[in-house]
Amino acid sequence: MKNFLRAATFAAAVTTLGLSAGGLAIAKNPMVGGAAMYPTKTIVQNAVNSKDHTTLVAAVKAAGLVDTLSSPGPFTVFAPTNAAFAKLPAGTVDTLLKPENKDQLTQVLTYHVVPGRIAAGEIAAKVKTQGSATYTTVQGGTLTFKKGAKGYTVTDAKGGTANITIADVGQSNGMIHVIDRVLLP
């Protein structure tokens, strides 16, 4: 019985630390908005559980992008938090969520999505060798990444800069990187 308890305790410690039996670290998805993010779920299935992304989820629904972001992808989403949306001028979010502004909302949201599964390490490697990294969004614009004081920043077409606050949140159909500002095309 003692050996069984030791083995169970060891197995629990390995799981808690995110280690494999061979001692290699296995990346665990971070918690986002107080919710566990599961790499077996889609971008949408995970995002709906984050209390920090309720505005983004409402916007994705209003733009009719739920099916797209639930598809196999892969996509990399730079996901602004509720606080990021709150930084926009008063009334902007309410205006964008109106049915008559669906096209404009879609342009803003798809500007936060890059085709493919892009990990932070790939962005960092490009920044290190080139000084910056540029990616084309689904919307057709570009996002530029640089090393900032507290990690990596992303700059939009209007010169606005967001910080990546949580990187590498793996999804079954791509990757999410949480950002602290809404990017504008």
Structure explained in plain terms:
With 185 residues, the chain is of the alpha+beta class. It has helices spanning 2-17, 43-47, 54-63, 66-70, 82-86, 92-96, 102-110, 120-130, and strands spanning 75-80, 113-115, 133-136, 142-148, 151-155, 161-171, 174-179. Strand 3 and strand 4 (142-148) form a beta hairpin. It is globular, with a radius of gyration of 18 Å. The chain starts with a helix and ends in a 6-residue tail after the last strand. Residues 1-27 have low confidence and may be disordered.
Can you summarize this structure?
By secondary structure, this protein is of the alpha+beta class.
Salient structural properties:
alpha+beta, 185 residues, seven-stranded mixed sheet, disordered N terminus, 7 strands, 36% helix
